[in-house]
Amino acid sequence: MRNAFDHPLLAFFYITGDTNPDHAETHYSPRLSVSLGGETKRGCPVCGNPNIPMVSDFSGSRVNLGSSDAKFFPDVLGSPGYLLVSVQVKNDLKEASVQGYRAHRVPVSPGFDFALKGQPIPPYYLLEITGRFDLDRRRFDNFEGQLCPKCHIWLPTKGSKFRYGEKNLFPLLESWNGGDFLVQGNIHSGALYCTKKVADLARAKNWTGFGIKVMSWGCPEGGRADLRFPDWYEDLRRKVLEAFPIINGEIHSPLDELRKRKEEGIAWPYPPPLE
Ligand SMILES: [Zn+2]
C-alpha cells in the first residue's frame, strides 16, 4: 500500500467535524451526544476502564442535539467517536461506493438547551465506522506507555516522556483494511478519519459541517485543508512534505525536534508554538 500515497500523512485525514470556511455559519453547528443501544455494556473486563463500550449496538442508539446557538441543521455532525449524516450524505456515500461504514437510521431529539427546539429535525443516520488502521507505535510512544490488549486504551507510564497528547500520529499503511472512514485499530481514541475520496466527495457535493486536517501535530496552519479550493490537496501536500519530510525512509517530525530541545534543557513550549 505504501506507494499508493505520496506520504503516510496524506493517506488518512482527521475529521474535524467543523466546516470549511465556505460555511462559516456552521460554527454554530449543534453538538451531539450519542447513547448506544440498550444492550451496551460499558467497562473493560481486563483493565476496568469504565468508559469503553464493549458492545456497540449502533442500530439501537439514540442521539441528542445540544447547543444554545445552533443556527441550522448541517449535513455532517461530529463528536468524539461518532458521526451523524444527512440523507443527502448517506446517498452520496452509497453512490460513490465509499467503504468503511454502516449507516443506521436513528432517532434524534433536541436537548433541553437546543436553540432550534420546535423546528422539525431532518432525518439523520449514525455511521458505525468499520475502517481500521494502526498507528506506528514506535513513533507514538516507543512502546513505553501501557496499552490494554482488550480495549486498546493507552495510559502514560510514570516517568516516561510520553504523556497524553504530544505524540506522533503516523499510520502504518500496511495495517489499513481499505475503509474510507476509519478509526485507529491498535490504540483507542475518539478520533475519526477519512481518505481523500471522502474529502473530494464532500467538496463536490458541498456538504455542510465537514472539515479535515492532517492527523499529526506540526503542520502549518494546524494542517487544516481548505476544501473551498480545487487545489486543496496540492496545498496540503506541499505543507506535509515540508513539515514532515521523509529522510532515509523515516518521517521527520517537528514534535521530535521539540522533544530534543527539551532534553537539551530548553523549556518545553506548551502548547507548542509552531502553527
Ligand atoms: Zn481495557
Tell me the layout of helices and strands.
Elements (H helix, E strand, L loop, with lengths): L12 E3 L16 E4 L26 E4 L10 E4 L2 E5 H9 L5 E5 L2 E3 L13 E6 L1 E5 L1 H5 L4 E2 L6 E2 L15 E2 L8 E4 L8 E2 L1 H10 L6 E3 L17 H12 L2 E2 L2 E2 L2 H10 L12
The structure holds zinc ion.
Give an overview in words.
- With 275 residues, this protein is an alpha+beta fold.
- It has one domain (2-263).
- It is built from five helices and 17 strands.
- The strands form five sheets. A six-stranded mixed beta sheet has the order 12-9-13-14-1-15. The protein has a four-stranded antiparallel beta sheet with strand order 4-5-8-6. It has a three-stranded mixed beta sheet with strand order 2-3-7, with no helix packed on it.
- The longest helix is centred in the last third of the chain and has 12 residues, at 232-243.
- Zinc ion binds next to loops.
- Residues 44, 46-47, 49, 148, 150-151, 153 line the site of zinc ion.
